Amino acid sequence: MGEENSIKLARCNGLSSEGPVYFCIFGRLHLVGMATFPETDETSQYAHFSIAGDCVYEGFCDDFGPMNLGTIFRFCAILEDQHRLWRNKSIALCSEPDGKSLTNTVFLLGVYMMIRLGQPPSSIIGKFEPLREQLLSFRDVSPGEQNFHLQLEDCWQGIWRARKLGWVDFTPTGFSYDEYVHYDDPLNADLHEVVPGKFV
């Protein structure tokens, strides 16, 4: 397996041996767990960015994810903008180091790799194996003890299946972000099309 197709550990120049660990996800993109990060200049090894204020899950109770299609679409756009902005640098996606934030970030990365890179869930799961102990299962909105665990793999398999059926299509004619956000609002019915053309 090539270096760009596996997670590797790398230390950011200028940080101590106890500094954050940078996981290479694919190509120039790395994932790092840190709440704050240095500004990027011409001497920086990494161009750091965060999605903390842009990709937010609005929970009902104790639930924390997974993210909906509107957030996935926005994440894909942000990530592609970062690649265009920093063509000559490694890119570091900074996630809050807590389990919930990290799990949502890994979910979005996995979906991006499926939708934009065409990689199946079976090849994505192993890329995040070093982080498995830090990742959580998603839960129902109900408080209290859960009797099931929705894993990242389950969510990725669902997105992959929907992609193959043409239900997830982020081409210009296949998805309207503005329309999705409008109907996702509880004031506008919180309406979602589960099976296109058949079931909402």
From TrEMBL:
Cross-referenced CDD domains: CDC14_N
Domain of life: Eukaryota
SUPFAM superfamilies for this protein: (Phosphotyrosine protein) phosphatases II
Dual specificity/tyrosine protein phosphatase N-terminal domain mapped to chain residues: 25-162
Name by which UniProt lists this protein: Dual specificity/tyrosine protein phosphatase N-terminal domain-containing protein
